[in-house]
Design goal:
The protein contains nine helices and 13 strands. The chain is of the alpha/beta class. The protein has a domain of about 220 residues: Rossmann fold (3-Layer(aba) Sandwich). It has a seven-stranded parallel sheet with strand order 3-2-1-4-5-6-11, sandwiched between helices. A two-stranded parallel sheet has the order 7-10. The protein has a two-stranded parallel ribbon with strand order 8-13. Bound molecules: nicotinamide-adenine-dinucleotide (NAD) and uridine-5'-diphosphate. The site of nicotinamide-adenine-dinucleotide has 27 residues, from helix 1 and strand 5.
Length: about 325
């Protein structure tokens, strides 16, 4: 890798930069020689995730809520600010909608003024409880617009629409990535998502909580693969805007995931079956044909390898 003074250094704004994915992105872009401004209100993110970056003079941390405008001169914006786990985004659904919608408007306004490229962290949740499997970008989704997940799903769908409208009306340079379930170190131990829940429960010898009968499926992507996909997308010519799926097509039932986590941790935890939350999608798997073609990207980290790394992280975090 070339040192920072040999490449054109960009000033990059990352909203939600103190969160799980955002903190890895801050680290990676600093390593690539850029200047990073991390904006976060610490709703689900934490300073612990980025404390190791604070000594770097090219890193700035700003406590700020994206529902209000933010002014800075930047070249690129990665808009990640939004709680991502169902427990967190349902905690205050109104705020989740405001964050997605007003956050998008504020970042698009900033991009319009500065001519920055702006990337929206969208989600596989725009497909809802999909009736087409695997999900290509051309699928419009099957979303309950009034259910308990709608604050997140519809907020993200509205953000995609805002991005497209700013692009069409104002020529804003946009990119939309639809991220499928992503896991790895720095997930919050209590954030309620399935990978962190199962690993923490297994390491602590507690019951593994399977919601429903465990036959629902998800496709789990290791965080490093996602970063590679997002950065490649940002580098594509302006004509390519997405939306593009970035996820690992390996599909597992939640029951299978629980069994793998038990085996990898050597845990004696038992499986318990709890009620399935409302509108929990039955299946989810990305069609990544477009990402392969336009980004030359495909995931490289198999589930067990990524889980091993995540288990090591949680062992240290929980001091086990
Ligand atoms: P996270 O909860 O760890 O990170 C979100 C960050 O945004 C946190 O640091 C939080 O404090 C911050 N934030 C929330 N509301 C804010 C506001 N109003 N103003 C400023 N900052 C705010 O979640 P994550 O998994 O790192 O997700 C990051 C982004 O990726 C989110 O937009 C999420 O919707 C998207 N995404 C994640 C996944 C996944 O599986 N992790 C899947 C699809 C999409
Ligand atoms: N899930 C589970 N036990 C848990 C947490 C989640 O069985 O302790 C299930 C959840 O019902 C869903 C899947 O795992 O079917 C993925 O849940 P997560 O919250 O990680 O993400 P999302 O539903 O948004 O894909």
């Amino acid at each position: 890798m070339r040192p920072y003074f040999m490449i054109r250094m960009k000033r990059i704004l990352i909203t939600g930069g103190a969160g799980f994915i955002g903190s890895h992105l801050c680290e990676r872009l600093l390593r690539e020689g850029h200047e990073v401004i991390c904006v976060d209100n610490f709703f689900t993110g934490s300073k612990e995730n980025i404390v190791h970056l604070m000594e770097n003079p090219f890193f700035e941390l700003v406590r700020h809520d994206v529902v209000t405008p933010f002014l800075a001169e930047v070249d690129e914006i990665y808009n990640l600010a939004c709680p991502a786990s169902p427990v967190h985004y349902q905690y205050n659904g109104i705020k989740t909608i405001k964050t997605s919608v007003m956050g998008a408007i504020n970042m698009l306004g900033l991009a319009k003024r500065t001519h920055a490229k702006v990337l929206q962290a969208s989600t596989s949740e725009v497909y809802g409880d999909p009736r087409i499997h695997p999900q290509p970008e051309s699928y419009w989704g099957y979303v309950n617009p009034t259910g308990i997940r709608s604050c997140y799903d519809e907020g993200k769908r509205c953000a995609e629409s805002l991005f497209m409208n700013y692009h069409r009306q104002n020529d804003v340079r946009i990119k939309i990535v639809r991220i499928f379930n992503t896991y790895g170190p720095r997930m919050h131990p209590n954030d309620g998502r399935v990978v962190s829940n199962f690993i923490v429960q297994a390491l602590q010898g507690k019951d593994i909580t399977i919601y429903g009968d465990g036959s629902q499926t998800r496709s789990f992507q290791y965080v490093d693969d996602l970063l590679e996909g997002m950065i490649r997308l940002m580098k594509t010519p302006d004509a390519f805007i997405g939306p593009v799926n970035v996820g690992n097509p390996g599909e597992f039932t939640i029951q299978q995931l629980a069994e793998i986590v038990i085996r990898l941790t050597g845990s004696k935890s038992k499986l318990v079956y709890l009620p399935l939350p409302q509108d929990d999608p039955v299946q989810r798997k990305p069609d990544i044909t477009l990402a392969e073609k336009e980004l030359g990207w495909r995931p490289t980290v198999p589930l067990e390898e990524g889980l091993q790394k995540t288990i090591r992280y949680f062992k240290t975090k929980l001091e086990l």
